[in-house]
Design goal:
This protein is of the alpha/beta class. The chain has 4 helices and 5 strands. A 5-stranded mixed β-sheet has the order 3-2-1-4-5, sandwiched between helices.
Length: 140
């Protein structure tokens, strides 16, 4: 295992549904990497999830990760709900199931603790992740 990697994620949407963006900051051994992207038609929850997916995909070897999100949907989904969904064989009625399945595979590759932070409350990295997400929203 490498040293602890800190990941800060956020998603944003202009309308819900509407155009959306996601942002992530990865920090390890004194280095930082910013990631962002967007979609023309999506939801805020999907962008929150995409930030987590893209950040975890960027981690190439098994690592100890502290992941910070302002999304209780993502935090509770991973730490509480996924266990039940998996036990039931992933029932088809789960909203955003395609992304939950991707997160499940990625989470299994690492030792991750999920931390919830209050959004828009002055948390420096959450504010930066939010700015990345907002800047990545596709404009018409």
């Amino acid at each position: 295992m490498t040293k602890i990697i800190e990941i800060f994620t956020d998603g944003a949407c202009s309308g819900n549904p509407g155009p959306g963006g996601w942002g992530a900051i990865l920090r390890w051994n004194g280095h930082e990497k910013e990631l962002s992207g967007g979609e023309a038609e999506t939801t805020n929850n999907r962008m929150e999830m995409m930030a987590v997916i893209k950040a975890l995909e960027a981690v190439k070897r098994r690592s100890k990760i502290k992941l910070y999100t302002d999304s209780t949907y993502v935090q509770k989904g991973v730490t509480e709900w996924m266990k039940g969904w998996k036990a039931k064989g992933w029932p088809k009625k789960i909203k955003n199931q395609d992304l939950w399945l991707r997160i499940d595979v990625l989470v299994a590759k690492h030792d991750i603790t999920f931390h919830w932070v209050r959004g828009h409350d002055g948390h420096p990295e959450n504010e930066r992740a939010d700015a990345l997400a907002v800047a990545a929203i596709p404009r018409k």
